[in-house]
Amino acid sequence: MPEQDIQDSAELITAYFPDLTPAQKAQFAALAELYHFWNQRINVISRKDIHALYERHVLHSLSIGLCYRFQPGQQVVDIGTGGGFPGIPLAILFPETQFILIDSVGKKIRVVQDIIYQLKLVHVEAWQQRAEKLPAACCDYAVSRAVAPLPVLWQWARHILKAGKENGLICLKGGDLSAEIRDCGCQPVIHALYPLLQRDYFQEKYLLFVPV
Ligand SMILES: C[S@@+](CC[C@H](N)C(=O)[O-])C[C@H]1O[C@@H](n2cnc3c(N)ncnc32)[C@H](O)[C@@H]1O
User: Fold this and answer.
1) What is the architecture, at CATH level 2, of domain 3-211?
2) C-alpha of 174 from chain center
3) What residues pair up with 101 in beta bridges, in sequence order?
4) Where in the cell is it found (predicted)?
């Protein structure tokens, strides 16, 4: 989609997820003001992208929810959440799932904590924490976008994932996938985002699921 055609708004999300409740719609709509406020103070989203918050960040994160449905009571850890992606949009979409969003940088986590507080996302926590230091077997799913090469991500995720036939790492990836998969020695399921979203501007053009 050419840059000039981007009509960024929370309505975009409703087109992909028609069953959102009024509360979820209000939470998605509130993200615009919250991210514009915080991005003027701390660079949590690339400044050249903030005008396309829903297109490039919220919808991109929610592609995970188009492919995988988290269940009530399951635990999801977002590794390297930065300003809250993909964790915050997924937490709005799945209000009965428990989310822990981690990042090694404290000032990003403080922004995420404020957004969680403003949106009253009582099922979400944000911790300043390095992925390597997370406790073993603490979640059903790990999610991640644009954080580390797959072999590194998988090493972190394998340690924190509980055993379970549907459990695994779900990550949004770009780059040389075949080299990363070879070096990782894992067998991911690969979804291409273009057929799913009809948008081709993402750097991370693939969604990978690596079963535990
Ligand atoms: C390029 S940003 C991506 C942020 C977010 N996932 C997104 O897509 O907008 C990478 C993030 O990973 C975090 N990070 C890198 N290594 C990490 C580690 N070992 N543990 C926790 N966070 C890490 C960085 O602090 C940074 O915020």
Assistant:
1) 3-Layer(aba) Sandwich (3.40)
2) 14
3) 78, 126
4) Cytoplasm
Task: Report the share of the chain in percent with pLDDT over 90.
Answer: 89
Which among 39, 58, 147 is the best mutation to test ligand 1's pocket, defined by most ligand atoms within 8 Å of the CB? 147
Task: Please indicate whether residue 102, judged by its CB atom, sits closer than 6 Å to ligand 1.
Answer: yes
Q: What is the sign of the dihedral through the CA atoms of 37, 42, 45 and 49? A: positive
ipTM value greater than 0.90? yes
Nearest CA to ligand 1 atom 23: 80
CA 31 – ligand 1 centroid, Å: 20
Question: What band does 169 get if pLDDT is binned at 50, 70 and 90?
Answer: very high
Q: pLDDT > 70: what percent of the chain?
A: 97
